[in-house]
Structures are given as C-alpha cells and as structure tokens.
C-alpha cells in the first residue's frame, strides 16, 4: 500500500526503510509509529470540520502496538523513530503522565504533548491500583480536545483545546489480565489505534543505517520548523478531491455495514463507531506527510486520493487488530 501511494523520498517511505534494516518488527509497527510521531510533532496544527460534520477533527492520535514480549519487537519499533523525533522537539514528549495536576501543569506549558509509554502495561497497572485513575479519566477527556479547567488555591486557569497524543506498547497477556470491558466499551481503548501483529521476517544482522537515520531526522526537523512558525496558523483543507470523495463514501458505507454486524457487541460497536473519525485524522496526517508545504500554504489545499487510500488501509488494519483484541478481552 505504501509503495503504491507514497512517493519516493517522503518521510513515511524513509521510516519504513530504516525500520526494515533495523529490526525484525513488522513494518505495520513502523507505519503506525510514524503516523503517531507526526501527530505528536504537528497534530495540533492540523484541523478540519468538513470530513466529520458536527465535530472538529484534529490530527492528534493514540497509537498502541500490541505484541508478545521480546519476540514482537514492539518496543524497538517505537524507539527507532521516537529517538529521532525527540531530537527535533525534546519538550513535546512525556515519558509518564504523573498525577492529574502534574499532567495539567505540563499541558499549560505546552497544550500539545505526546505521552511516550513503551511499557503501557505499567501505566495501566498503576491506574488499576488507583494511583493514576483520575489521570486516566483526564486523558480520555483530553483526547476529545475539550477545554479543561485547572483550579489552584488562588484561582483557576482554563486550557483551551489541549491536544495529547500517545505512543505505547503492551502485551496481549496484559490486555487480557488487566483491562476491563469499560476500557473497550467507551473509554481508553475505543479511542486508540491498535495494531497487533507478529514478525514476518528474520533479520540476522540488524543495523542502524546512519544515512537513512539522518534523512528521517531531517524530515522530522522540517515538520517541526514548518508547522511551528510563530504566529502562522495552518489552514483547514478546502475539501476532498473528487476521487478521494468517492473512496471516502465507499469506506463510510463499509464501516456502517460492519457496525450493523456488531451492534450487539458493545465494545466492537464503540470501536467501529469511531472509525470514520480515526480515518479523517489519518487522512489529514497522511496528506501532511505527502505534501507538507502545500498543507501549510495559505493558498488552500485538498485531501487527495493518495492520502485517503493510505488512511483507509491503516484504519482497516487497526480495526482488524482492535476487534481481535477486544473480543478476546471482552469475552
């Protein structure tokens, strides 16, 4: 799919090339991680209300890689790209959410942040013990971009449209043992893009290619400079091209058909109910990857067939993984 729609030289192609040389982890992990990192760097700058009527669409994402310990290489898959993205913007990444108040304070300093939790299971274990329960509830609210009010002894402060992305990894065994039906039905996991897979390649001698790493570092630097120019707002897209609109309508019908099939299953209905919104976010981000200068220009930009095709393909892979994980956990 990426070979068909992403042009040579774009950051997505570079990320997959680097990943293939560096680890046996599935290339799907690299694709999902790259979208999550682009969302972390520029997601809050992308916005649109046309693709999903009735709600504003932001490019912020939650990406969770699911795989067995060690063998799946999920943590390595996250680290390869995150280390490069962090050099471009070190203050944007938080390695733990901390308390409810601490997270809000961090977001006050910068309303667009990314939680980097390669061991997401540890976070959920603490949430189950009550230490981070209120933080978990706050994350769910922040995902929707709702204003949040901070109350201090001497007054209060309101965060306007905070955006928080998330990159995490977890094992299937932990999902089975420590998540609840509510996590899938209407809370945390129904808002995340979930990708569960196993390695398909054997890489006897992994190597971190310095040249390709440098190319990806330059791409992350470019995104950061382009979309964080002080005082310059990234415009919303004009709309979908005719070819992209046909793809979108077909995909919307497909989601509706799947939803009708799983209406009796609350967890799956919740996941599928967010599929259109997730696809819209992915379309925005893929377009920014394919044509970053056009997206940032004031002349108006369109979401193309290529971006929608990539978004649909990745969302479909997410739905397959999420449905499998939810059925196993919920039932």
Number of helices: 15
In helices, the fraction of residues equals 40-55%
Number of strands: 11
What is the SS-derived class? alpha/beta
State the low-pLDDT regions, or none: none
Radius of gyration: 19 Å
Largest sheet: 5 strands, parallel
- State which percent range the strand residues make up: 5-15%
Read across the widest sheet, the strand sequence of neighbours is: 4-5-8-3-9
The SSE order reads HHHEEEHEHEHHEEEHHEHEHHHHEH
Topology:
Blueprint: H1 2-5, H2 11-22, H3 27-42, E1 47-48, E2 57-58, E3 62-66, H4 74-88, E4 93-94, H5 100-109, E5 112-117, H6 120-128, H7 133-143, E6 148-152, E7 155-159, E8 163-170, H8 172-178, H9 181-185, E9 193-196, H10 210-227, E10 239-240, H11 242-261, H12 266-273, H13 275-290, H14 292-296, E11 302-303, H15 305-330
Parallel strand pairs: 3-8, 3-9, 4-5, 5-8, 10-11
Antiparallel strand pairs: 1-2, 6-7
